[in-house]
Amino acid sequence: MDLVNHLEGRLLFAVPKKGRLQQATLDLLAGCDIQFRRETRLDIALVKNLPIALIFLPAADIPTFVGEGRVDLGITGQDQVGEHDAALPAGETSGVEEVMDLGFGRCKLQVQVPEKGTITDPKQLIGRNVVTSFTGLTEAFFAKLEGKSEKSELTTKIKYVGGSVEAACALGVADGIVDLVESGETMKAAGLKAIDTVMESTAVLVKSRGTKNELVELIASRIRGVITAQRYVLCQYNIPRTELATASRITPGKRAPTVTALEDDGWVAVSSMVEKKSIATVMDQLTEVGATDILVMNIANSRTA
């Protein structure tokens, strides 16, 4: 099948073709019931149950395709969006609009220097060699440090390297680097330490400011529902009516808890969404105020305000 000629009328959705964001993105698409089969070595996949085409691109290229209106939607990192926007001419509005934070792929873009060196402050790198894959953000960071309004006036020498940035200091190419840090293991293994943070980043859903495709809101709603389901559980319990106000403060829910009268006078059943990370503490607090029959259930999917 000539896939390129089957894109007409479809929403074009750019997703990472590899790297740290890819698997979480594919899991998210599966949760949204976006059904597709990607043929080997093809970077376009037609969705079977919706008029959508998935375009597999490097995460760094997705903001460009979205910003120029070549695709309608994309999933990439905030770091990549920031790098794209930093390269825009002064005064130009970005064509990339962030729809929502997806909550995965969390990392930091940090200034790093040799652990055993004498540099402890990024100002000590002014006028020296700094290597990075994020030249736009790095130039903006050092322009602020140097008090320069134009990047062309920088005395710090920013050099671009596409990969293995952490090796630059050991090889004598750089006095410091600016690179992404997730766990910090790679940084430590390379004998480096972080001395400042340029920005924090997570995966985001972005759209083209020029898109008119009505499916954008549908897909955004589905993704929001999946993320909410991953973040929350449903907590149900029985509580004396006299303690309802106290219990409701413990489990306020997304809008308000659902309260149902029981056959046993003076008691009510309560159902409320609670963040997964807090559920153990919430159960303890409910027990202390007299709640019984506390049940916690996973949420497969959701649509919430």
UniProtKB/TrEMBL annotation:
<dbReference type="GO" id="GO:0000105">
    <property type="term" value="P:L-histidine biosynthetic process"/>
</dbReference>
<dbReference type="InterPro" id="IPR020621">
    <property type="entry name" value="ATP-PRT_HisG_long"/>
</dbReference>
<dbReference type="InterPro" id="IPR011322">
    <property type="entry name" value="N-reg_PII-like_a/b"/>
</dbReference>
<dbReference type="GO" id="GO:0005737">
    <property type="term" value="C:cytoplasm"/>
</dbReference>
<dbReference type="InterPro" id="IPR001348">
    <property type="entry name" value="ATP_PRibTrfase_HisG"/>
</dbReference>
<dbReference type="Pfam" id="PF01634">
    <property type="entry name" value="HisG"/>
</dbReference>
<keyword id="KW-0808">Transferase</keyword>
<comment type="similarity">
    <text>Belongs to the ATP phosphoribosyltransferase family.</text>
</comment>
<keyword id="KW-0963">Cytoplasm</keyword>
<dbReference type="GO" id="GO:0000287">
    <property type="term" value="F:magnesium ion binding"/>
</dbReference>
<dbReference type="InterPro" id="IPR018198">
    <property type="entry name" value="ATP_PRibTrfase_CS"/>
</dbReference>
<feature type="domain" description="ATP phosphoribosyltransferase catalytic">
    <location>
        <begin position="59"/>
        <end position="225"/>
    </location>
</feature>
<dbReference type="GO" id="GO:0005524">
    <property type="term" value="F:ATP binding"/>
</dbReference>
<feature type="domain" description="Histidine biosynthesis HisG C-terminal">
    <location>
        <begin position="229"/>
        <end position="301"/>
    </location>
</feature>
<keyword id="KW-0328">Glycosyltransferase</keyword>
<dbReference type="InterPro" id="IPR013820">
    <property type="entry name" value="ATP_PRibTrfase_cat"/>
</dbReference>
<keyword id="KW-0028">Amino-acid biosynthesis</keyword>
<dbReference type="GO" id="GO:0003879">
    <property type="term" value="F:ATP phosphoribosyltransferase activity"/>
</dbReference>
<dbReference type="InterPro" id="IPR015867">
    <property type="entry name" value="N-reg_PII/ATP_PRibTrfase_C"/>
</dbReference>
<protein>
    <recommendedName>
        <fullName>ATP phosphoribosyltransferase</fullName>
        <ecNumber>2.4.2.17</ecNumber>
    </recommendedName>
</protein>
<comment type="pathway">
    <text>Amino-acid biosynthesis; L-histidine biosynthesis; L-histidine from 5-phospho-alpha-D-ribose 1-diphosphate: step 1/9.</text>
</comment>
<keyword id="KW-0067">ATP-binding</keyword>
<dbReference type="InterPro" id="IPR013115">
    <property type="entry name" value="HisG_C"/>
</dbReference>
<dbReference type="Pfam" id="PF08029">
    <property type="entry name" value="HisG_C"/>
</dbReference>
<keyword id="KW-0368">Histidine biosynthesis</keyword>
<keyword id="KW-0547">Nucleotide-binding</keyword>
